[in-house]
Amino acid sequence: MEMHTGPWQGTCGFRLTPDDDLAVAPSSAQVGPEATRTGWSLRYTWAHPQDGEQAGVLLVGGPDEEGRITAAWLDSWHQRPQVRLLVGTSDATRTIFETDYDGWRWRILVTTASGSLGLTMHNVVPDGSEGMNPGPYVVMEARWSPVAG
Known about the structure:
ten-stranded antiparallel barrel; globular; DUF1579 domain-containing protein
């Protein structure tokens, strides 16, 4: 993530259920090194269509001996008031985290490319959920470009 440090701006879409359309609004992000570059953070803003401005942060540690990474996640709408711990993997262009909650799963994907940064959150519906097909669906999707300056 080192080449992606700094401020970013763009849009973020949110939906509660797979049948909803994504409600797209302006969004920003800030990526920076943490703990003498042993990790990094992604701070982001987004807007909920009814509840207004929201914010979140991922604090990501370096990989262990087996290549797993961990992160602490806090979001003013999705994940509060406690920090949620995530486990994942990373390569040159993407970092993917997962965590369980009440039989469901969160899957969070951070993507990087030259001149772009993305954050996609999937809610993974478990088998047997009434009225919903099992499997992942996009809850939130943000795309940012670097802030000129």
